[in-house]
Amino acid sequence: MAVFVSSASAATLTVGPGETYTSISSAVTAVSSGDTILVKPGIYSEIVDLQYKTDVIIMSESANQVDTMVAGFDANYARNVTITGFNINGTLLGGSYGIYSYEGRNLTIEKNTISGYLTGNGIIIKNANYNLFADNTITNNKYGVYIDSSYYGTSSYNTITGNNISFNTDYGIVFNDMYISNNLFYNNYLMNRYNHFSASAVSIWNTTRSPGVNIIGGSYMGGNYWGRPDGTGFSQTHIDADADGICDEAYVYGADVDYFPLGGFAPIGDVSGLDESAVGTEWIVWNWTNPSDSMFNHSMVYLDGVFLTNTSEESFNATGLSDSTKYEIGIKTVDVLGNVKPIWVNDTATTLDGTAPASVIGLNESETGYTWINWSWTNPADLDFNHSIVYIDGTLLGITSTESFNATGLVQDTVYEIVIMTVDTSGNINSTSVKDTAKTDLQIVTPVTTSTGSSSKKSSGGSTGTSLRIISPEETSEDETVDKQNAGVADLEETPLQSTPEEPSDVGNEGAETGSTAGSLVENTESNSTPGFSILVGMVCMLSIVLIHRRKD
After folding, report:
1. What pLDDT, in 10s, does the model give residues 125-167?
2. Would you say 143 and 174 are in contact if contact means Cβ atoms under 8 Å apart?
3. Which tens digits make up the pLDDT trace of 419-456?
4. Measured CA distances, 303 to 102, 232, 291, 331 (Å)
5. For an engineered disulfide with 149, which of 64, 177, 221, 418 has Cβ 3.0 to 4.6 Å away?
6. Buried b (16+ CB within 10 A) or exposed e, 55-93
7. Are β-strands 108-110 and 132-134 bridged in parallel, bridged antiparallel, or unpaired?
8. Buried residues in 103-139 as b, exposed as e (16+ CB within 10 A)
């Protein structure tokens, strides 16, 4: 508690806009021992110099630690000075301390918020004795409370109690010299990466265990709450079986011992049956059953070691995840006193694959025919590639995991388009299609002249005919040469050879022989469609008749 010295001549000096004193420093200049400086809400960007001041109270009018902001206090050699109710903030001037006292005595620093000195100290004292630091919130500084000494003196018999010393970047409390002694540190809430450093082995870390509401709401006074932001502090990981708000074991840190550390967790159970109940490409839902213990309050949920939320429900939906990725959920149970059981319950699950495979490459026709085209390509290297979907001119024709497709039943001399889309084992389809066009071959029909009958029959007028042969374009040049050769042979075969008719054995048969010969020639003529050949046949018939008559003569 602050010690107020009454005086018949004590005065109250008010600071604020429109007041006699518009700055705190101007009031301090005018203050006398026993006076009180009352500061109205506002922002006071000044380091208030209280050096050598004695028996002075300086306090905010609102006493709410928020709306009366000041850059800092320098209390060197001050005696019996009280500072209370301020928001002492390092962001105003970027100073290196909130309150500093060298050789200060009987100072009372209480009910202030001291923060923002990220390169310095919330409170620093050196060679200072019999000071009280009570009920302050000391946060977001490099060091919370820094106690030091020198060759000329020591810092002893100081009491630090009821303070919330949390989230300071280096240490919460530092006793920086081995000659520092008999400082009492109890009923403080520490929640820092490193809670304390002590070069002194004679500091006192707890008071007598006795009934009373402690800083974390427990029913007994004792030592301090030793927490850490990651949940691994001593008070967070040790048992309080009788639920009196004090751990069953002492906190031992080197030569320092807190015999009655606050906190500890009741022996509550863990969650059970933790397992994923549904999985998507960007989310996982986990379910579990809470313990039935009456002391159970809620669960702390972590994902891949990062704290996400507190919940008393029996499920959690983790969202905003990456597809095809494994995640681990961790759950710790917390009792009604806020004590965290240090035992993890974990489960892992993997989000669904939401990424389609890459496209095929090198798509091109490898062979073509009159009614078919064979395409080939290279499948993607994705490990989860499963198959390709093949379309021809927009019609689904097949599904294949190979690297080729033979389209059949096509029309000759026609262009066709193939489209290929890849699919993975999860059914994801690559909407970027790969296309290629190709044309079936053209069938060419060409006439081929053929002859009938053997050479022994040509003398009697052998006949010729014409047939059709279907050839492919690549055969054309070779077949043209063959056709020309066949045409020459046909011309020779179509020219009748002159021959001497056999002598008739009986003159009376002349007409019959003549008619037979003529009929045969006429028949051969009718079977040949070449006009010049008919004339030749007629001439042969006339010549045959003349020769027969000459023989008879």
Report:
1. 999 999 999 999 999 999 999 999 988 889 999 999 999 999 9
2. yes
3. 999 999 889 999 899 999 999 999 887 766 554 444 44
4. 47, 17, 21, 9
5. 177
6. bbbbbbbeeebebbbbbbbbbbebbbbbbbbbbbbbebe
7. parallel
8. bbbbbbbbbbbbbbbeebbbbbbbbbbebbbbbbbbb
